[in-house]
Every structure is written in C-alpha cells, then in structure tokens.
Design goal:
With 363 residues, the protein is α+β, with helices and mostly antiparallel strands. The protein has a single domain, classed as Chorismate synthase AroC (Chorismate synthase, AroC fold, 4-Layer Sandwich), CATH 3.60.150. 28% of the residues lie in helices and 22% in strands. It has 8 helices and 18 strands. The chain has helices at 37-47, 107-114, 130-148, 174-177, 187-202, 230-239, 260-263, 333-361; strands at residues 4-5, 10-14, 21-27, 64-68, 70-71, 74-75, 80-85, 151-159, 162-163, 209-216, 244-249, 267-270, 273-276, 284-285, 288-289, 294-300, 310-313, 319-322. Strand 2 and strand 3 (21-27) form a beta hairpin. Helix 1 crosses helix 3 (130-148) and helix 6 (230-239) runs antiparallel to helix 8. The protein is globular, with a radius of gyration of 21 Å.
C-alpha cells in the first residue's frame, strides 16, 4: 500500500479511523522556518468532525502534536512527525458489519486486495486518514506563503443539485468561505445548500457536491513534463482524497463545447511579465504553470454509509439487510475544503523544490 506522496517535499501518513491515533511524517521541509502546533491547528480545526449539525457528530478535538523536526520553534530540515490522538473511537458501532461489505464502500475491495480489513470505520479508507494530509499541507502552505506569497483558497461550489454562481477568484478569501457552515461564499446559495444537506440528513441519506479551488501567486515555470505535468500531479493528489470521483482544471469539460478561437488565452503584458487575457487554461499550459491563477474543481460522491436499511450481500454471498450504525457526514464537501487546500499546497511545495533544484544545478 502506498501511503507516501511527493518527490522532494514528501509525506507519509499513518493510522486508521479507530486506532489510537493518526498522523504524518513530512520530509523535505527547508530548515529555519518558524513552525509551531498553532500553525497547523487552524486547518485541522476546519477539517475536524462535529463542527455543526451538517457534519458527523463524532467528537474529536484533533489536537496536533509536533514530535520531531523542530527545535525552539524552528524547522531543522529533518523529518517532521505530527500526531493526532483518536479519542472518540466507537468500534462497537461496526460489530454487525464485520461480515457485510457496505455498499459502495472499500470493505470488499480491501478484503480482496489484502485478505484482511480493519473491522471498524473503514480503516485506512476512512476520511480520518486525511488528518495527516491537512497537517502536512499546513506546513507546505506556510512555506509557499512565506517564500512565494502564494495563497490557496477552496470553497464549496455545489451540494446536491444546488450550484453556486460565479465567484471572483481574485478576491475570494477563507474568511468569506467560512462565513457559512457549508463553506460556500455565495450567501443566497449557501442557505439553499444547508437546506439540501439537512433534508438528506433527516432522511438518513447523503448527497454529493463539488469543491472549487484557486491558487494565486504561483510563479510561471513550475511542473515537470511530460508525466509529472502540474495538472497531472494536482489530479493525482485530488483523486487520492476519499470520496472523489472527478477532477477538472480551467475550463474543464465545459471547454469542450468551445471553439479554439473562443478557448485560446491571448498573451498580454502584465507589469514585468507576460500574462494572459483570459484563463481557460486554468493557470497551466503544457503541464507548466504560466503565472495565472491555477483553478480547478473536484467532484465528491455521496457518502457511502447511510442510515437507511439497504438490501445487499454478505461476504459469503448470502442476502442480507444492512442497517449501518456509526457517525457519518450527510455530505462531505464542507469538511473537504481544507483537505483540498492541503493537497494543492503539497503539490505546489514539491513543484517549488523541484524547480529550485533545477535552477541550482543548471550550468
């Protein structure tokens, strides 16, 4: 199983949903950067369960502890280990599901691949694994902000069939995103999204949605063609997030309906560099950043575990009715926002170090 992501800025996550804790080891963080738990905790607080009535009621504070890689609140350039304890585990909620693979969950596929699976909470396939990603992403984001001035903001652009209107990617802030419990900066649409999620929650059901993201201030020249193009690495990172089912960058699928004359991004002078008049490319051309904002959208399916009784089959093939217990989100997109930001930061931090290495070795 691959639990490691990245080339030079590299992370390895560990832990399961109902073990003693989860965390991450981050390698490649430059030395001398100020770093404390408070730098990481903000994003973990945005990701944690039990924030409001739209999320799982699992009660976890998700307090992070930095165990290595820093001294006197400065990074040493050595691997950074961060740990978050699981305090509200309830493995007994999953007792009667031990012999029944939950529909559209990872129980069956993990069993077929490894011959064994975690008995509760999905194990490594649980979204609880993303705590390590968010912790590591916070470190990557701090590096990107301090050295390059890069800003990363994600928001909920749809929940169920409720879709937000256009958002100004040049001015959107996390404060505006967090003004609503559903994390949609369009106030009118956010209210409709809340009602949509409340309705499926009350029906013991679930719904999907999309998260959009903008990365501002990325310099031109990042990305490693041909197989590690910047958009390819972003897609790799985003589609590794639990419950994801689709990724598009720039104009995405809608761009297929345009003519080349409509879709092309003409170059213009912007201060001391070339820029583009439009941004259908989403900030990436030829797999390399072009200096424009990087924009992409990610699709999340409805959470697989629901409270309704479902007719399915056990591992032995017998017909059964599954009435799942446990605590689950009726819609994952509000809590997915900081996870998307974290994975974007990890990709960009790795791209930054690769470009720096190229510059220092050039002759």
């Amino acid at each position: 199983m691959s639990s490691t992501f990245g080339t030079l800025f590299k992370i390895t996550t560990f832990g399961e949903s109902h073990c003693r804790g989860v965390g991450v080891i981050v390698d490649g963080v430059p030395p001398g950067m100020a770093l404390t738990e408070s730098d990481v905790q903000t994003q973990l607080d945005r990701r944690r369960p039990g924030q409001n009535s739209l999320t799982t009621p699992r009660d976890e504070a998700d307090q992070v502890s930095i165990q290595s890689g820093t001294e006197f609140e400065k990074t040493l350039g050595t691997p950074i280990s961060m740990f978050v304890a699981n305090k509200d585990q309830r493995p007994k909620d999953y007792g009667e599901m031990a012999d029944i693979p939950r529909p559209s969950h990872a129980d069956y596929t993990y069993m077929k691949k490894y011959g064994i699976k975690a008995s509760s909470g999905g194990g490594r396939s649980s979204a609880r694994e993303t705590i390590g990603r968010v912790a590591a992403g916070s470190v990557a984001e701090k590096f990107l902000k301090e050295k390059y001035g890069i800003e990363i903001v994600a928001w909920v652009s749809s929940a169920g069939d409720v879709e937000a209107g256009p958002i100004d990617i040049n001015t959107i802030t996390r404060k505006a995103v967090d003004a609503s419990p559903v994390r949609c900066p369009d106030e009118e649409t956010a209210e409709l999204m809340v009602k949509e999620i409340e309705a499926v929650r009350d029906a013991s059901d679930s719904t999907g949605g999309t998260v959009s993201c903008v990365c501002r201030g990325v310099p031109p020249g990042w990305g490693e063609p041909v197989f590690d193009k910047l958009e390819a690495m972003l897609a790799h990172a985003m589609l590794s997030i639990p419950a994801t089912k689709g990724f598009e960058i720039g104009s995405g699928f809608a761009g297929t309906a345009l003519k080349g004359s409509e879709h092309n991004d003409p170059f213009i002078q912007k201060g001391d560099r070339l820029g583009t008049l439009t941004n259908h490319s989403g900030g990436v051309q030829g797999g390399i950043s072009n200096g424009e904002p990087i924009t992409f959208k990610l699709a999340f399916k409805p959470p697989a575990t629901i409270g309704q009784a479902q007719k399915t089959a056990g591992f032995d093939g017998s017909n059964v009715t599954l009435e799942a217990k446990g605590r689950h989100d009726p819609c994952v997109v509000p809590r997915a926002v900081p996870i998307v930001e974290a994975m974007a930061a990890l990709v960009l931090a790795d791209a930054a170090l690769q470009q720096e290495a190229r510059a220092t070795t050039a002759v």
